[in-house]
């Protein structure tokens, strides 16, 4: 085929494919060398025209409310995603299913209220995760970080967390830094397992360590959560408070009362049984005596009848 005849269908398909990969840079964003920067562009939705070969994506300081898995999943080469300071409220199942190469993820300073247990299920290469400054985020499921086995830095500062399940960190063997300050930690007995985890995990100490403190109960308010394990162990395992003593006293009283009632009922049943047995014995004795009298009378009458010389009384 000569050049004069124009490009063939193969060339057109190749050009179309390259156009999809290259993409057209989103409006008001800067695209260069596999990096897209859309910082502070007042975006309300996730941009759909991002080049598919993008490796670093900056969406911080916008008003984006959600991360659509369909569009995000097209960016299979993405390793760095910054969504800081947006209005994202939820991260649903498999949101990041297509960006399994992701190493850095920043979801800080959003309006997060819910993180699905399977949100990060495919992010096995994730090294740094920032979810700080989401004051409405009060709960994390124990399987939230189950597959993020490469995670080294986890930032959970200034959220609404009151407790965490220690099993949530069971698979994070590479974890080096864990930031927990600014949360209203409730250091009750259900917090004990996580407090023990903090004691034995040998995480790298940081300036954040002493700022992560208990808010409740009152006797532990202000205690660093990294040092509350032993006091909690004493309070919850080896020490009984006034409520515990009252509870044990009530149990003892109930056992005593139940035993007393059972003994009284048993005694009454025994007395009634003995009375019934005695009455039955008396009735049997009367019947036996009557039978003896009748027999003796019959024998006597027989002797009288058989002996004509026996004096007749009548």
UniProtKB/TrEMBL annotation:
Gene Ontology terms for molecular function: potassium channel activator activity; transmembrane transporter binding; voltage-gated potassium channel activity
Bilayer topology: Single-pass membrane protein
Record's subcellular location: Cell membrane
Keywords of the record: Cell membrane, Disulfide bond, Ion channel, Ion transport, Leucine-rich repeat, Membrane, Repeat, Signal, Transmembrane, Transmembrane helix, Transport
InterPro entries: KCNMA1_auxiliary (IPR051432), Leu-rich_rpt (IPR001611), Leu-rich_rpt_typical-subtyp (IPR003591), LRR_dom_sf (IPR032675), LRRNT (IPR000372)
Top-level division of the source organism's lineage: Eukaryota
Isomerase is among the record's keywords: no
Residues annotated as transmembrane: 245-273
PANTHER family registered for this protein in UniProt: GH08155P (PTHR46473), LEUCINE-RICH REPEAT-CONTAINING PROTEIN 52 (PTHR46473:SF6)
Protein name: Leucine rich repeat containing 52
Upper taxonomic lineage: Eukaryota, Metazoa, Chordata, Craniata, Vertebrata
